[in-house]
Amino acid sequence: RVFGKAGRADTATDPAPFEMLETTIQLKPRDQWRAGMTPEKLREELNRVVQVPGLANAWVPPIKTRIDMLATGIKTPVGIKIMGPDLQEIERIGLEIERALRDYAGTVSVYADRTATGRYIDVDIRRLDAARYGLNIADVQEILETAVGGMTLAYTVEGLERYPINLRYPQDWRNSIERLRQLPIVAPSGAQITLGDVATVRVTDHPSMIRSENSRPLGWVYVEISGRDLGSYVADARERVAREVALPPGYSLRWSGQYEYLERAAAKL
Question: Do 208 and 19 contact (CB within 8 A), yes or no?
Fold first, then answer.
């Protein structure tokens, strides 16, 4: 059986971006597998069949993945953390690393976070225009919260189940930028105005998710490998990245994922 999950849970223990998709595959007992089938062959076959434009595959055990994500943030065997002051520059460096490692020996898939490619509806309230109608910033924000975002007024309790009672405008009143500009507002004086009369509504580009470590913004590059051990792969990949990717001043790389466990074990031994 196959179970799918899109997005993320509202919890600090799930450090996943909104665009991450998780698919849990429950396998049949091994005695029902095809002759000669192994987990490695199964991953290779799945990787050939499951190819979605814009997405990279990482085939990992679900419980182990959750532990790895909590410990290092990286769910693939090898991860690269890019740290620096500017998220757009971090994204550019990540794309360069992705290109450098895509065809490298042992790489199954490599994917760099698009740290600065989120799309947002930005409502910039014009204070003077709002004041002319007797409105302040809090008034307009409250209208947006209830009319567009939706406000939970109460909960209905049905046995052991609880459901929120949510109030907001109908979908066809808020399903486009133009409709949002025409959102009706009643001013304290009784004047009938629209949101566009007191605010500028536009689509803007901002980070889809901001991560930080040691008080520095960072982006991640996920690398799935096969046919090579972690130590030799990272040693060779480091040389290739250092040769092909120039880091501007103020930016640094840190190799992470399961490779961190190898480094700690080697240091102790």
Answer: yes
